[in-house]
Design brief:
By secondary structure, the chain is of the alpha/beta class. The chain is built from ten helices and nine strands.
Protein backbone atom coordinates (compact mmCIF):
# COMPACT_ATOMS: atom_id res chain seq x y z
CA UNK A 1 0.00 0.00 0.00
CA UNK A 2 0.97 3.59 -0.44
CA UNK A 3 1.72 5.79 2.59
CA UNK A 4 -1.61 7.53 1.99
CA UNK A 5 -3.51 4.21 2.13
CA UNK A 6 -1.66 3.07 5.24
CA UNK A 7 -2.38 6.36 7.01
CA UNK A 8 -6.13 5.73 6.64
CA UNK A 9 -5.87 2.60 8.83
CA UNK A 10 -5.65 3.19 12.56
CA UNK A 11 -4.40 -0.17 13.86
CA UNK A 12 -4.59 -0.58 17.61
CA UNK A 13 -4.70 -3.35 20.22
CA UNK A 14 -7.56 -5.85 20.40
CA UNK A 15 -8.22 -5.03 24.05
CA UNK A 16 -9.04 -1.46 23.00
CA UNK A 17 -11.38 -2.52 20.19
CA UNK A 18 -13.17 -5.27 22.10
CA UNK A 19 -13.82 -3.46 25.38
CA UNK A 20 -14.80 -0.14 26.88
CA UNK A 21 -12.28 -0.55 29.69
CA UNK A 22 -9.60 2.07 30.25
CA UNK A 23 -10.55 5.47 28.91
CA UNK A 24 -14.26 4.66 28.89
CA UNK A 25 -15.37 8.28 28.49
CA UNK A 26 -13.40 8.68 25.25
CA UNK A 27 -14.44 5.23 24.01
CA UNK A 28 -18.10 6.11 24.44
CA UNK A 29 -17.64 9.38 22.56
CA UNK A 30 -15.91 7.57 19.69
CA UNK A 31 -18.56 4.87 19.43
CA UNK A 32 -21.77 6.85 19.19
CA UNK A 33 -24.65 5.01 17.47
CA UNK A 34 -22.30 2.06 16.90
CA UNK A 35 -23.38 -0.93 14.79
CA UNK A 36 -21.70 -4.27 15.49
CA UNK A 37 -22.31 -6.80 12.69
CA UNK A 38 -21.37 -10.47 13.09
CA UNK A 39 -22.36 -13.85 11.64
CA UNK A 40 -23.55 -17.04 13.33
CA UNK A 41 -24.65 -20.49 12.23
CA UNK A 42 -27.56 -21.23 14.58
CA UNK A 43 -30.10 -19.09 16.41
CA UNK A 44 -32.89 -20.17 18.78
CA UNK A 45 -36.46 -18.94 18.80
CA UNK A 46 -35.66 -17.12 22.04
CA UNK A 47 -32.69 -15.26 20.54
CA UNK A 48 -29.66 -17.20 21.78
CA UNK A 49 -26.96 -17.65 19.14
CA UNK A 50 -24.27 -20.27 18.45
CA UNK A 51 -21.25 -19.13 16.45
CA UNK A 52 -18.29 -21.25 17.56
CA UNK A 53 -19.31 -24.71 18.75
CA UNK A 54 -22.05 -27.16 17.85
CA UNK A 55 -24.14 -28.97 20.44
CA UNK A 56 -22.05 -32.17 20.45
CA UNK A 57 -18.95 -30.24 21.57
CA UNK A 58 -17.13 -29.95 18.25
CA UNK A 59 -15.56 -26.53 17.79
CA UNK A 60 -16.04 -24.99 14.34
CA UNK A 61 -14.68 -21.51 14.95
CA UNK A 62 -13.26 -19.17 17.54
CA UNK A 63 -15.53 -16.75 19.38
CA UNK A 64 -13.25 -13.87 18.46
CA UNK A 65 -14.68 -10.59 19.68
CA UNK A 66 -18.30 -11.44 18.96
CA UNK A 67 -19.45 -11.65 22.58
CA UNK A 68 -17.63 -8.40 23.41
CA UNK A 69 -19.23 -6.55 20.51
CA UNK A 70 -22.72 -7.78 21.38
CA UNK A 71 -22.16 -6.79 25.00
CA UNK A 72 -20.93 -3.34 23.92
CA UNK A 73 -24.06 -2.86 21.84
CA UNK A 74 -26.08 -3.12 25.03
CA UNK A 75 -23.69 -0.98 27.08
CA UNK A 76 -23.37 1.90 24.60
CA UNK A 77 -26.20 4.38 24.22
CA UNK A 78 -27.79 4.12 20.78
CA UNK A 79 -25.73 1.07 19.72
CA UNK A 80 -27.12 -2.12 18.14
CA UNK A 81 -25.87 -5.66 17.63
CA UNK A 82 -26.77 -7.25 14.30
CA UNK A 83 -26.24 -11.02 13.91
CA UNK A 84 -26.61 -12.53 10.43
CA UNK A 85 -27.70 -16.17 10.12
CA UNK A 86 -28.66 -18.22 7.09
CA UNK A 87 -32.17 -19.51 7.77
CA UNK A 88 -31.39 -23.02 6.50
CA UNK A 89 -28.56 -25.25 5.33
CA UNK A 90 -28.28 -28.40 3.24
CA UNK A 91 -26.68 -31.54 4.61
CA UNK A 92 -26.54 -34.79 2.67
CA UNK A 93 -29.03 -33.38 0.18
CA UNK A 94 -31.54 -32.60 2.95
CA UNK A 95 -32.63 -29.12 4.02
CA UNK A 96 -32.24 -28.33 7.72
CA UNK A 97 -33.25 -25.24 9.69
CA UNK A 98 -30.64 -23.01 11.31
CA UNK A 99 -33.44 -21.47 13.37
CA UNK A 100 -34.20 -23.96 16.17
CA UNK A 101 -36.31 -23.93 19.32
CA UNK A 102 -33.37 -24.70 21.61
CA UNK A 103 -29.69 -25.60 21.26
CA UNK A 104 -27.16 -27.33 23.50
CA UNK A 105 -24.57 -24.55 23.29
CA UNK A 106 -24.62 -20.80 22.80
CA UNK A 107 -22.05 -18.10 22.14
CA UNK A 108 -24.49 -15.24 22.77
CA UNK A 109 -27.06 -15.84 25.53
CA UNK A 110 -30.70 -14.94 25.08
CA UNK A 111 -30.53 -12.03 27.50
CA UNK A 112 -28.22 -10.22 25.03
CA UNK A 113 -30.54 -10.72 22.06
CA UNK A 114 -30.86 -7.73 19.76
CA UNK A 115 -31.25 -7.93 15.97
CA UNK A 116 -31.17 -11.11 13.86
CA UNK A 117 -31.07 -10.98 10.06
CA UNK A 118 -31.75 -13.92 7.74
CA UNK A 119 -32.32 -13.95 3.99
CA UNK A 120 -36.03 -13.59 4.79
CA UNK A 121 -35.92 -10.42 6.84
CA UNK A 122 -35.02 -8.72 10.11
CA UNK A 123 -36.10 -9.76 13.60
CA UNK A 124 -35.75 -6.90 16.10
CA UNK A 125 -35.65 -8.69 19.46
CA UNK A 126 -34.38 -6.12 21.91
CA UNK A 127 -36.69 -5.34 24.81
CA UNK A 128 -39.33 -7.84 23.65
CA UNK A 129 -41.10 -10.49 25.69
CA UNK A 130 -40.28 -14.15 25.00
CA UNK A 131 -43.51 -14.55 23.05
CA UNK A 132 -42.81 -11.48 20.93
CA UNK A 133 -39.30 -12.76 20.26
CA UNK A 134 -40.65 -16.16 19.16
CA UNK A 135 -43.11 -14.45 16.78
CA UNK A 136 -40.36 -12.29 15.26
CA UNK A 137 -38.02 -15.27 14.80
CA UNK A 138 -40.74 -17.37 13.15
CA UNK A 139 -41.19 -14.56 10.61
CA UNK A 140 -37.54 -14.88 9.45
CA UNK A 141 -37.35 -18.69 9.56
CA UNK A 142 -37.66 -20.83 6.44
CA UNK A 143 -41.32 -21.73 5.84
CA UNK A 144 -40.47 -25.43 5.51
CA UNK A 145 -39.81 -25.46 9.26
CA UNK A 146 -42.11 -22.74 10.60
CA UNK A 147 -45.01 -24.96 11.67
CA UNK A 148 -42.79 -27.41 13.56
CA UNK A 149 -40.99 -24.54 15.31
CA UNK A 150 -44.29 -22.87 16.17
CA UNK A 151 -45.65 -26.10 17.68
CA UNK A 152 -42.50 -26.56 19.77
CA UNK A 153 -42.88 -23.05 21.17
CA UNK A 154 -46.56 -23.65 21.91
CA UNK A 155 -45.80 -26.94 23.66
CA UNK A 156 -43.26 -25.14 25.85
CA UNK A 157 -45.77 -22.44 26.79
CA UNK A 158 -43.81 -19.72 24.99
CA UNK A 159 -46.48 -19.00 22.38
CA UNK A 160 -50.28 -18.75 22.58
CA UNK A 161 -52.08 -21.82 21.26
CA UNK A 162 -54.20 -19.96 18.71
CA UNK A 163 -51.25 -18.15 17.10
CA UNK A 164 -50.98 -18.21 13.31
CA UNK A 165 -47.93 -17.17 11.28
CA UNK A 166 -48.82 -14.01 9.29
CA UNK A 167 -49.62 -14.63 5.63
CA UNK A 168 -46.82 -12.29 4.51
CA UNK A 169 -44.22 -14.62 6.04
CA UNK A 170 -45.53 -17.96 4.81
CA UNK A 171 -43.53 -17.86 1.57
CA UNK A 172 -40.08 -17.83 3.13
CA UNK A 173 -38.42 -20.19 0.69
CA UNK A 174 -35.63 -20.05 -1.92
CA UNK A 175 -38.10 -20.17 -4.80
CA UNK A 176 -39.82 -16.99 -3.62
CA UNK A 177 -36.47 -15.24 -3.29
CA UNK A 178 -35.62 -16.22 -6.87
CA UNK A 179 -38.95 -14.81 -8.03
CA UNK A 180 -38.16 -11.50 -6.34
CA UNK A 181 -34.67 -11.47 -7.88
CA UNK A 182 -36.07 -12.12 -11.36
CA UNK A 183 -38.55 -9.26 -11.00
CA UNK A 184 -35.68 -6.95 -10.10
CA UNK A 185 -33.93 -7.94 -13.33
CA UNK A 186 -30.45 -7.60 -11.89
CA UNK A 187 -28.63 -8.56 -8.68
CA UNK A 188 -29.52 -6.27 -5.80
CA UNK A 189 -25.99 -6.38 -4.42
CA UNK A 190 -22.58 -7.30 -5.80
CA UNK A 191 -21.04 -10.51 -4.45
CA UNK A 192 -18.50 -8.43 -2.53
CA UNK A 193 -20.29 -5.15 -1.71
CA UNK A 194 -17.26 -3.69 0.08
CA UNK A 195 -14.82 -4.55 -2.71
CA UNK A 196 -12.43 -7.46 -3.17
CA UNK A 197 -9.01 -8.36 -4.52
CA UNK A 198 -10.48 -11.38 -6.34
CA UNK A 199 -10.57 -10.95 -10.12
CA UNK A 200 -13.77 -11.54 -12.09
CA UNK A 201 -12.40 -14.91 -13.19
CA UNK A 202 -11.62 -15.89 -9.59
CA UNK A 203 -15.11 -14.90 -8.47
CA UNK A 204 -16.61 -17.15 -11.16
CA UNK A 205 -14.36 -19.97 -10.02
CA UNK A 206 -15.36 -19.52 -6.39
CA UNK A 207 -19.06 -20.01 -7.22
CA UNK A 208 -18.39 -22.93 -9.57
CA UNK A 209 -16.06 -24.77 -7.20
CA UNK A 210 -18.42 -24.23 -4.26
CA UNK A 211 -21.23 -25.77 -6.32
CA UNK A 212 -18.95 -28.65 -7.35
CA UNK A 213 -17.86 -29.35 -3.76
CA UNK A 214 -21.49 -29.41 -2.61
CA UNK A 215 -22.61 -31.84 -5.31
CA UNK A 216 -19.63 -34.19 -4.87
CA UNK A 217 -20.14 -34.28 -1.11
CA UNK A 218 -23.77 -35.31 -1.76
CA UNK A 219 -22.68 -37.82 -4.43
CA UNK A 220 -25.06 -36.17 -6.90
CA UNK A 221 -23.12 -37.51 -9.84
CA UNK A 222 -26.17 -37.49 -12.13
CA UNK A 223 -26.40 -33.71 -11.84
CA UNK A 224 -22.69 -33.41 -12.53
CA UNK A 225 -23.00 -35.58 -15.63
CA UNK A 226 -26.02 -33.65 -16.87
CA UNK A 227 -24.14 -30.38 -16.53
CA UNK A 228 -21.27 -31.81 -18.57
CA UNK A 229 -23.43 -33.41 -21.28
CA UNK A 230 -25.85 -30.59 -21.95
CA UNK A 231 -23.69 -27.52 -21.55
CA UNK A 232 -23.92 -25.41 -24.67
CA UNK A 233 -21.07 -23.00 -25.02
CA UNK A 234 -17.80 -22.31 -26.73
CA UNK A 235 -14.75 -24.20 -25.42
CA UNK A 236 -12.99 -20.84 -25.22
CA UNK A 237 -15.59 -19.67 -22.68
CA UNK A 238 -13.66 -21.44 -19.93
CA UNK A 239 -10.15 -20.69 -21.14
CA UNK A 240 -9.47 -18.02 -18.51
CA UNK A 241 -10.75 -20.06 -15.52
CA UNK A 242 -8.85 -23.14 -16.67
CA UNK A 243 -5.70 -21.10 -17.06
CA UNK A 244 -6.18 -19.63 -13.57
CA UNK A 245 -6.44 -23.14 -12.12
CA UNK A 246 -3.43 -24.25 -14.16
Amino acid sequence: MTDQERNRINMTRISFINHLYGDETLNRLQRQDARFINTAFTVTLLGAVASDQIDDGRVLSGVGGQYNFVSQAHELEGARSILMVRAWRERGGEAMSNVVFSYGHNTIPRHLRDMVVTEYGVADLRGKTDEEVVMAMLNVADSRFQVELMEQAQAAGKLRQDYQIPEAHRRNNPEHLHEIAERCGKPSFPVFPLGTDFTEVEQRLMMALTWLKEKVSHKEYLKLGRKALFHEGSPTEFAAPLERMA
